[in-house]
Amino acid sequence: MGHGIGAIKAAGLSPFASEFTSEGYAAVTFDYIGFGESEGSPRNVLNVQHQLQDFRDVIKWVREPEQSDWVNSSSIVAWGSSFGGMHTTALMAEDHELAAGIAQCPLVDGLAGVLQMPLTRSLRLATTAAADILGSYLLGAKEPQYVDLVSDGSTAAVMASKEAAEGWARLTPDNGEDWPNIIAGRSLLSIMFSRPLLQIHKSTRPYLVILPTWDNEASLNAAEECVRRAPLGEALRVGGGHFDLYKGGIAFEKNIAGQKQFLRRLLCK
User: Fold this and answer.
1) For labeling, which of 115, 128, 137, 171 is most exposed (least CB within 10 Å)?
2) Contacts with 203 (C-beta within 8 Å, 6 or more apart), sequence order
3) pTM for the complete prediction?
4) DSSP helix/strand/coil, 44
């Protein structure tokens, strides 16, 4: 189970994992390299390919014979939320031994996500991204130049609105872990050029995509297109916006009920 952009496993994944374990499933959550409890430096630098490899490594680990007493290797489901849905979309296209995939409010096309941003915000973030790349790769700066992940709209951030700030506040880490509201500027370039939507037609397994009524953080149009392009794509439509799918949001109960129904149908035969 992989989280969204800049997010850590302690911030919002536990309610979903608990719901799945209550059904008798094993749920594995993890932090991407450089985030949360995972090692790696510099911190809070998002590289799409590195995060995708993290996902691959976790799946490889649960498939090892040593885990066979608690894992059925033929029933592994890749699960991603928000930006994590970008990785599950890529995995569905490349790993045909997965039983299925689930992505909620996913970003499946980085370019579409960037183009959805207001122009002024995009330009401000692009300036920081360029400065970070210049400082890191050409000037040898050790520390990245960071941008805020979330704001209420009064300052520049990757997600900048009152809705985003309120939703983000609901994802308070359940273990009290410090969770910086930042991400390295260079991360934005990595995101923009990642477009797994264009490969999802190669998938061969059922893929459930949960779609909110509106989504100001990830391209809803691209997510809908993902369902259409995936040979076994399924859509679950719920109310509210991007953050309403999490615990405390108006769509959480319908969201998790639909996911459990999907898993029962596929895995409990």
Assistant:
1) 137
2) 92, 93, 96, 101, 230, 231, 232, 233
3) 0.96
4) coil
